[in-house]
Amino acid sequence: MVVDGDLxxxxxxxxxxxxxxxxxxxxxxxxxxxxEEYIRLHMxxxxxxxxxxxxxxxxxxxxxxxxxxxxxxxxSVELVQRLLGVLSNFCWGAGLTVNLDKTVWMVxxxxxxxxxxxxxxxxxxxxxxVMKFKYLGLVTTGHGMGTMMSTRLTAxxxxxxxxxxxxxxxxxxxxxxxxxxxxxxxxxxxLYGCAVWGSTVLSxxxxxxxxxxxxxxxxxxGALRTCMGLGRGVRNEVLHxxxxxxxLQLYVAKAMHRYAS
Length: 261
Hints:
There is one protein chain. This protein is α+β, with helices and mostly antiparallel strands. Helices cover 47% and strands 12% of the residues. It has ten helices and eleven strands. The strands form five sheets. It has a three-stranded mixed β-sheet. The protein has a two-stranded antiparallel ribbon with strand order 1-2. Strands 3-4 form a two-stranded antiparallel sheet. Helix 5 (146-170) runs parallel beside helix 8 (214-228) and helix 6 (175-190) packs antiparallel against helix 8. It is globular and about 70 Å long.
């Protein structure tokens, strides 16, 4: 081990970090941090079109990293295979092992009916293809944000059903407590990742006055009515004023603005 430029004596590592230890993702992130720079150095060998193919919002984005999860991004078969080769070289030099059982690829966007799926390899092992992919809790099929939204709505409904059982069991009827629990356990579940999929529920010109949340908005307002003890005849505007909660699309717009800034 090198500490402040001094090389220590050799020693044997007999035990790693314990399961669930917060030091585990930190140590791994420090160890893996070099791969981003490693890939960027290899991008110097790419031509202009290849570099532009992974440019998003003005930034070159050939990969996404979070803890021990990684996503490689490419818009051509050759580029994706090249990125897999770069990853292989980095892992070989760093002593890391890629779990091929959890390594998959997916195509995004529409493809022609005559399109033949390619075969990708990692060290001569075939990487399997999937039709949907889950990254950081968000499920996508590569064809828009609909799957992400439906998955969040399903999860929120399950959380709401559990919360209703708790409220009935405990006999909690105080509106403030019920609304707080709704915000904590249900709304956070419903809006998870909305900075990514939120553009789907806003109007094309960004007008947040138009409610395009569809089923998600109906579910959320229904939960608010239950917490407040109000019937369906109460107008949405009155519901939001009495509960002190914004319409759902405003929370989405706020999250998107925070993410973009």
